[in-house]
Amino acid sequence: xxxxxxxxxxxxxxxxxxxxxxxxxxxxxxxxxxxxxxxxxxxxxxxxxxxxxxxxxxxxxxxxxxxxxxxxxxxxxxxxxxxxxxxxxxxxxxxxxxxxxxxxxxxxxxxxxxxxxxxxxxxxxxxxxxxxxxxxxxxxxxxxxxxxxxxxxxxxxxxxxxxxxxxxxxxxxxxxxxxxxxxxxxxxxxxxxxxxxxxxxxxxxxxxxxxxxxxxxxxxxxxxxxxxxxxxxxxxxxxxxxxxxxxxxxxxxxxxxxxxxxxxxxxxxxxxx
Amino acid sequence: xxxxxxxxxxxxxxxxxxxxxxxxxxxxxxxxxxxxxxxxxxxxxxxxxxxxxxxxxxxxxxxxxxxxxxxxxxxxxxxxxxxxxxxxxxxxxxxxxxxxxxxxxxxxxxxxxxxxxxxxxxxxxxxxxxxxxxxxxxxxxxxxxxxxxxxxxxxxxxxxxxxxxxxxxxxxxxxxxxxxxxxxxxxxxxxxxxxxxxxxxxxxxxxxxxxxxxxxxxxxxxxxxxxxxxxxxxxxxxxxxxxxxxxxxxxxxxxxxxxxxxxxxxxxxxxxxxxxxxxxxxxxxxxxxxxxxxxxxxxxxxxxxxxxxxxxxxxxxxxxxxxxxxxxxxxxxxx
Lengths: 273, 335
Fold this sequence. Notes:
The complex is a heterodimer of chains A (273) and B (335).
Chain A: H1 2-5, H2 22-42, H3 48-70, H4 73-104, H5 108-114, H6 121-129, H7 131-148, H8 156-183, H9 187-203, H10 216-224, H11 226-240, H12 245-272
Chain B: E1 7-18, E2 21-32, E3 36-40, H1 47-54, E4 62-67, E5 70-71, H2 76-82, E6 83-86, H3 98-108, H4 113-126, H5 142-153, E7 160-164, H6 172-187, E8 191-196, H7 199-205, E9 208-213, E10 216-221, H8 223-229, E11 233-239, H9 245-256, E12 261-262, E13 268-273, H10 279-288, E14 293-299, H11 303-311, H12 327-333
Parallel strand pairs in B: 3-8, 3-9, 6-7, 7-8
Antiparallel strand pairs in B: 1-2, 1-4, 4-5, 9-10, 11-13, 11-14, 12-13
Helix pairs in contact in B: 3-4, 9-10
């Protein structure tokens, strides 16, 4: 009974601050990420897309394109696995936006908004928890590739680094889809808009085929497409064990996306509040 | 001029417009610290919107509101440290268990890991949810969900608690349990602002009541003040021949000088009764016009009548014949 029977401190005598410190923002975000992980544990069926999709896509693309593009399956794998990895993980980051939209329609978001926590925390936490999904997708893609005969020359250390790079970039991109999630009216429209953005980005890149067979105008786009840089960076890391300029370009691109879309998303979220 | 410690909530001229619907149209509220304030109104009257604006969940389009002297817009983060909000639809996480919910909200309120766990257990005990603590909320009854929701609002022991229709959809027993909990809260010094569409709930719990309809406060005061505003008691008449209704209404107006309220089925006429002595005159007048009665009763006012009189709901079908039945009292008691 102690909760209710103890006298409540009056509003006027409390010491209060009108801003949230950086430390509190981080703590709040991690608490929200903890919620995200609990949700995953409660509804493991949410993980179907990050477990089945990498398996199906990797096997499918390997055997469809392998012979045509690289002559045989074994020599296509070093080209394809980094490409399919990037494509799968970025597709997964769309789900972040869709689930955020569904989540925000629930009553619990009213409570989050009424709590004295950092405004960004419910968003940042959800996005942070989703890195678990990206990690699963990354691991499975590499494992399926390994089973099909892919032997990355870079060694395990560089493969892990390549995986981390993809996860970081996917997290950055998920801010874009989170933004759609916040401004859209329904979860299905988030999915629609997101795939409209996603398909040109992932297919008009060097993810599945070398870009030198494409027409000039398309090559121009493919070469400035950040997805191409990410794919090249992963290939450099996993296949050659080198950190090239594409690695830094991919990280820079990720940072720019977060710097633009994180504030946009938070502002849109607060306006909706 | 009252100081900020006297008033838990002070709102003036709150307006919220959704599209071309003025959901809240100039609401003034003053809630004294340590009291229970009831906002009473039918569905869609704007109650929830008012609460959401005061709880920093919605930005007012016009007007100004403070919570313990802190502006809800410019000092929102301070206000959030002073309030607990229990929404109309349980604002807890359906996918988590009761314990997980309370631990999460404790963590977000700045409690440590061990503290959060202790707090969660304490609240589960307090609200009789210990047995169901580990179950996912999907299997919770409406009453259990509300209790958990309220428990979550009390983690930071906020001095002001908003309860948006805390008992809507609950069975009578669970409702009276909820009332007991609210009364206990107030005895510890909390201020409670609750909305309800139940008149008996406002009557039972609230020290002061604001009646709100179509986004406006149509009356404000204690339950007794509101009741006496529609007359000390009311006179109820039922006619033998419903065709005599208009004549009867005219007679009441000329003899008692008051406007009547017609029951929805229009078979019963209710008139506020300020002066019992003049009932004799009325009965004589009715006899002279050959209007026969099947029933004559004097009733003490209930909040139901206050509500009906103030909002005019239920007499809409007779609006053409009774254009001012709901207007006059509205003007008189408007605070």
